[in-house]
Structures are given as structure tokens and as C-alpha cells.
Amino acid sequence: MTRVACIGEAMIEMSLDGDTAALGVAGDTLNTAVYLKRSAPEIEVDYITRLGRDPFSDRIKTFIASEGIGTAAIGVDPVATPGLYAITLGEGGERSFTYWRSASAARQLFADGDFSMLEGYDLVYLSGISLAILPHPVRLELIAYLKDAGVRVAYDNNHRPRLWTVKEARDVTSAFWGFADIPLPSIDDEIAVFGGDKAEARARFSTAPGLGAMKCGADGPFSIGAQVDQSYPPAGRVIDTTSAGDSFNGAYLAARLQGMTQAEALRAGHDLAAKVVGCRGAIIPKTAM
Questions:
Q1: Which DSSP category does 165 fall into?
Q2: What are the pLDDT digits (tens) for 215-259?
Q3: Which one from 28, 77, 240, 246 is the annotated catalytic residue?
Q4: Cα 208 to chain center, whole Å?
Q5: Is 229 assigned a catalytic role?
Q6: How far apart are CA 31 and CA 186, in angstroms?
Q7: pLDDT (0 to 100) of residue 180
Q8: pLDDT (mean) for 108-126
Q9: d(CA 274, CA 264)
């Protein structure tokens, strides 16, 4: 059985609709873990993070388990609590976020320098956010471990400028683009971190070491590492773009890990993302997939 470890921060999600707020569970790499598992139930997916000892942490862990995702590698901090964020929607489904995460338990992930929990996996998936919440020395240790561990690595450059400096993001992301087996950049984040325009962002991946995909929003994905000529239909409706990229990653990785072609994987990612943006929240009901 293929085993995948997804690393990051699971949070309480508060979705605002007028004067009403709905609580859920989300987080960029957790969203991907959920959509990966739903797209390929036969793949073993574990989530690696830290939570506290509080009702919201229990809520998060229960949700993760309910999606068939392994929780054995989730550490427990007796003092800290999980982070929380609120989504506010604008025109065209564009969203803005308000975060309360500065004391999140996930910030202490790997603080002891022990990465043994990552052993035995066929693929490790993480994002820029997974790295941004960690102290810089821990980031560097994790990068060194992954480069030497002999495990396949998938990386999304998901960028939140409030979490770290542009220089830190550039240095860390450059390191991952140098060795990631499955690069999964978003074109807007790539431009935000490295500058240039869309053509220059695509060109930077002309010599990428792995086969992957650049997410380009409504334009559809750009194939990295192999030429793919196919068009992508627009989403039928756009209500909430939260988790568009995360869901793409989940379906794309599921297809790749099941042996599908690059073209099939790109289409699977695009088709799922088109469904996700038609619903509210980061993780849509299974019946909507």
C-alpha cells in the first residue's frame, strides 16, 4: 500500500455568511490530505502536526480520523491550542483571511529535531505554510532531512507573507524547487516570492528536476516536466475559491500515485478544483465531489 505523510497545521475554520458563522476544520495541507484520500481511498494518508489538549483540538483530530486519515503521528502539546482563521468572501468568490495562530501548537512541530516519524513513507507532502510557521533553524533541519532521506517529496509554495519574510520564503522555496520530486507551485505565489510575470514564472520550471504542475487559476494548470496540450473548461460557478489549489493538489497526487498519465492527473486536479470553488468552505461535502 502506498503511504503518504502530509505535514502542516490543522486549524479551526470560521466561515462568515452575513451575521452567521459556521465552524469547520481546515488547513492547506490538511485540505490536500482530505481530497487525496477521498480521490484514492486505497492510499494510506497520515497527517503530521501538533495539537493541544482542548475541545477544539479534539474536534480537529476527530474530523481528521473521520476522513480516514491517520492520526497516530499527531503530537500533543499540553499547553498550546490550535490556530483559528476566519474567511470573508468578496466578489467572484475571492476570499480574505483573518488569522489567530501565533501561539498554535503546530509551531512546535519537530522542535526536538526528531524527524523519525517521517520514516517509511512513499511520499511526503508539505507547503510553504508548513515551513513558514516553524522557527528557521527547524526549517533548515527539515530540508536537510528530506534531501537525504530518500523519500519522494511534493511541495506547494503556498505563501502567506505575514508568516515570514520574502527572503525566507525565497530561500526555502528555492531549496525545494532544487530537489522536489513533484513541484506544485501556484503562479501567483511564485510571482509574489520571486517576481517577474507569468511567462517568467513558467520559464523558471523549464529545468525542474521533477514532474509536477503549476496552478494558474481559471487558465488551468501548466504542466511541469512534460509537455501536455489540452484545454480546461472553466468552473460552472465560483462561490468560494478557498482550497482551489489544495484540492487540485489532492486529486493530482492521487492520480499520479495510482499510475495515471500526466494529462490525466492534470485533468483530475482541475476538475475537482472546479467543483470545490462552487461550494463554501475549504472542505466540501463528499456528496458534492
A1: -
A2: 999 899 999 999 999 999 999 999 888 899 999 999 999 999 999
A3: 246
A4: 20
A5: no
A6: 16
A7: 97
A8: 96
A9: 15
